[in-house]
Amino acid sequence: MGKAAVLNPTSGVAEEPRLICAPEEIFDAPVIAQKITDAIGDLPPAEARTAVVDILRDAQRIGRDAIATAFAAKPFDAGGMTRAYTYLTDHLVRTTLDFAAQKLHPKPNPTEGERLAVIGVGGYGRGEMAPFSDVDLLFLIPYKATAWSESVVESMLYMLWDLKLKVGHSTRTIKDCIRLGAEDFTIQTAMLEHRLITGDAALAQDLREALDANLFSGTGTDFIEAKLDERDRRHVKQGQRYVVEPNVKEGKGGLRDLHSLFWIAKYIYKVNRAAELVDRGVFRADEFETFRAAQSFLWAVRGHLHLLSNRATEQLAFDMQVQVAQAMGYKDTAGRRGVEVFMQAYFRHATAVGDLTRIFLTGLEAIHLKPEPLLERIFRRRPRVKAGYEVVHNRLAIVDDTAFLDDKLNLLRIFEEALRTGMLIHPNAMRLIKANLHLIDNEVRTAPEARRIFYDLLLKHGNPERALRRMNELNMLSAFIPEFEPIVAMMQFNMYHSYTVDEHTIQTIANLAMIEKHELEEELPVASSILSRGVNRKILYTALLLHDIGKGRSEDHSILGAKIVRAVAPRLGLKQEEVDTVEWLVRYHLLMSDMAQKRDIADPRTVRDFAKAVQTVKRLDLLCVLTVCDIRGVGPNTWNNWKAALIRGLYRQTKRALETGLEDLNRANRGAEAKKALREALSDWPRKALTTETGRHYDPYWQGLHVTAHVAFAELLRDIGTEDVRIDLHPDEDRDATRACFVMPDHHGIFARLAGALALVGANVVDARSYTTKDGYVTDAFWIQDFEGNAFEASKLPRMRSMIIKTLRGEVIARDALKSRDKVKKRERAFRVPTHITFDNDGSEIYTIIEVDTRDRPGLLYDLTRSLADSNVYIANAVIATYGEQVVDTFYVKDMFGLKYYTESKQRTLEKRLRQAIADGVERAAE
User: What does R_g of the chain's alpha carbons equal in angstroms?
Assistant: First the structure.
């Protein structure tokens, strides 16, 4: 069998490829050939085959080690890496064919029908292989299979499988290839990138000529549509470009998108290299450089991903992101982890792939776009566009590029015209914009007309997110507001945020626009009513646009963001009073969220402190809407009824306090109102029983719970015995939680035991309150959710009740039972969540507030509360806020004498014990 030269996939000509290391380090063909000759001698076929496989397996290991070592030293040399694996695979395939044809099944005088060519197809045919890529082979025969060809192919395959290569294969004639390729676009695509590996070169040339004449000679319209449909289906399956754990190969903006682009180019323009598309006028030189850079980066990522996972994995999971970033040399910087810098580069390349696809497809439209049906052309109402624009293929295009660029403000006006007409911007216009962003200078940024256009985009047309997303994808947003550029495609490496920072910002603005259009009135009654009453929309939109602009630096992003506002807002034309308000909103954009989720909003001091910080109802209104949009913009499932209830509760109490005076927040007023509400709810109770109930509780009980919980506890306490344990589990669907009320004789550590029991049944505690009655009973209320953040189904409550009772009786020891549940999932181990513990004696009148900020895990609340109980700490309330892998557990506590923890020595002792409880849990997880 003859030896075929290796095709360089980027040149289309036969040549030795550029490899990441010396060819002899990958596969020293003369040395290995001599080894095979020496080893097989006169051995019988079966033993000879085993000997050859052993030699090739050793050569394969040496070659793979050499490539991996060289790639580690040159982690961005994707081309050298992919060709090196192709080079190694080529030699393994050639050697097995030579051995099978010459030693196992010799045919001194083959007939015309006993010819065989081994063709690489698909990615292998293209000459691009990752460490664990499939090896797709076409065994080409002139006519139907003979006994000789079947024997050779079978022997080859068994040898290649023994080498652990994942071989996809088919044996076909040229006619088979034409027929099957015409029926199946997947086969047609694979044939598009075929390459002779070894065997009969004349037969391979006949195939090439037949394919060009019979399969790849049409206009390509059907092929293009098939590839684009395939791409759309793949994107639906894999998700959008900013999926936090992207698929490098199949995801949006991934390698398959580049492949699809090149397949179409190869079919239509008959090119062998992407660089030839510049000569054809499809890409400019700088656009081809973007193509090359994206391709190289994505292949490098895929190569490291394969090597690190030791298998053909394409999903860039959280744990692999850290390892790939390290392998590619990304380092931690001030305020950012190396993995975040790496993922920002990844998302920027993915965005570039999307831009290139748009540009490329536009070049095909003129000759390949199918005409609309006649009736649609007659009856479709086309928007009338302003002078200087035209409609090309239903997109907004520019009539005269030179005239357009004569007025630099046109680079902004086109986005407004696109919003006004509801049309997409033509990709050629996008190319013009991207190529001339340098025209956006300080003169443009401060021009009154530019300010007017920008705020009209935000405020006038009802869908500002569409304009912002277009501007962001074309880098226009960063050109107009340079301070925005650092957060473009910036990933926040955690499980809480579903989007990059820039996409999160746009999502928050999209939410605000939806509220303004009355689309969320039922879901967001408070925010909707605020906007209906009227606010300064320019302030609100500007604050949302800039609220996270300080992220990614070592300084607190809220503080830095407020400083940036002082530079940006005046440049955008805001008045000083508006600048001050936007600055305040950005500086304190997390305040309401933190107060609502990390503090007890039933404590008068919480509301009083928040009201003092906000100062005016006007600011409260703006901050409330901003907070709602910010939380909803974090991810599709972040906002829920529990958070909604907390935000609504804090807003309404604070608004009342600001309007009627802070003195309305005192405990006496709240207690009197709560008792009155309970009497009304229990109007059918005997007066004596009702008097007993209203008299048995201390003041904190009355201001800490809603009347529905007061009613539940009243029923549980009525006629209770000294040994009774009573439980009420009630789905609170309005809050997406289940309320679990417990009444029993008070004894030490009961709060921790209840927390352990709830952890055992898979309950996530989001809020908990503990009160002791004057006659010696404990009344504990927990609000719990399942792992999806919902109230428990009614069918699961009996099992929950049974497990809680067993735990309270001591039949199940929570600490032992939780050991198997403490493990941190592999994909979550890469997250760094440092532990911070703070003590606050000012946030509550009667309690010390201990805030524990650490990594979340099953059983954490139990460990912390048990540690506090062992330290004789009385826990009145526990508020739990979860942010992906991070949790903030806040405890309102007293010491055994009913006093706050003022002394630093006592605080340090408690902190040490809490840290030890966390460390013990981490150790259990590691075991």
Answer: 34
Query: What are the C-alpha distances in Å from 669 to residues 395, 605, 662, 862, 885?
Result: 64, 14, 12, 35, 40
Give helix then strand counts, H and E, for the chain: 41, 15
What mean pLDDT value characterizes the chain? 89
| Helix residue spans in 490-616 (DSSP H) | 501-516, 525-533, 537-546, 557-571, 576-587, 591-598, 604-614
Is the pLDDT at 825 greater than 80, yes or no?
Answer: no
Distances (CA, A) of 93 to 9, 158, 204, 475, 694: 18, 12, 16, 47, 87
CB 829 within 8 A of CB 842: no
Q: Degrees (nearest 5) of the Cα angle 228, 231, 234?
A: 155
Q: CA-to-CA distance for 865 and 418, rounded, in angstroms?
A: 58
170 torsion bin: left (phi>0), alpha (psi -120 to 50), beta (else) = beta
777 near 745, Cβ under 8 Å? yes
Rounded CA separation 29/8 (Å):
19
pLDDT tens column, 583-613:
999 999 999 999 999 999 888 899 999 999 9
Q: Which residue reads 């006496």 in tokens?
A: 668
8 A C-beta contact, residue 892 and residue 777: no
* Residues ≥6 apart with Cβ < 8 Å to 450: 409, 412, 444, 480
In DSSP notation, 59-87 reads HHHHHHHHHHHHHHHSTT-HHHHHHHHHH
Separation in Å, CA 872 to CA 707, 843, 876, 896: 31, 22, 13, 6
Q: How many Cβ atoms are within 10 Å of 384's Cβ, its own excluded?
A: 8
pLDDT of residue 230: 80
SS3 for 684?
Answer: coil
From CA 476, how far away is CA 111, in angstroms rounded? 67
Of 899, 919, 914, nearest in space to 866 by CA: 914
- 459-503: pLDDT as tens digits: 999 999 999 999 999 999 999 999 999 999 998 887 778 889 999
A 10 A CB-CB count for 617 gives 14
Helix (H, G, I), strand (E, B) or coil at 54: helix
Residue 764 to residue 761: CA distance in whole angstroms:
9
Q: What is the pLDDT of residue 179?
A: 94
**Quick one: pLDDT band at residue 786, thresholds 50, 70, 90?**
confident
Domains of the chain by range and CATH? 23-206 (3.30.460.10), 221-368 (1.20.120.330), 381-463 (1.10.110), 685-926 (no CATH)
pLDDT at position 249 is: 92
> If 0-12 CB within 10 Å is exposed, 13-18 middle and 19+ buried, where does residue 366 land?
exposed
Dist CA 548 CA 502 (whole Å): 8
What is the reported pLDDT for 1? 40
Residues contacting residue 661 through CB under 8 Å, at least 6 positions apart: none
Plot region of 518 (φ>0 → left; ψ -120 to 50 → alpha; else → beta): left
Tell me the pairing of strands 777-785 and 848-855: unpaired
3-state helix, strand, coil in the chain (%, to 5): 60, 10, 30
H or E segment and range at residue 174: helix 174-183
What are the structure tokens assigned to 812, written together?
A: 């199940």
Residue at 29: amino acid letter:
A
The pLDDT of residue 661: 80
Helix (H) or strand (E) holding 120: strand 117-120
Indicate the burial class of 385 (C-beta count within 10 angstroms; 0-12, 13-18, 19 or more). middle
Residue 15 has pLDDT above 50, yes or no: no
Give the pLDDT mean for 125-140. Answer: 95
Per-residue confidence (pLDDT) for residue 698, from 0 to 100: 87
The pLDDT, as a whole number, for residue 538 is 97
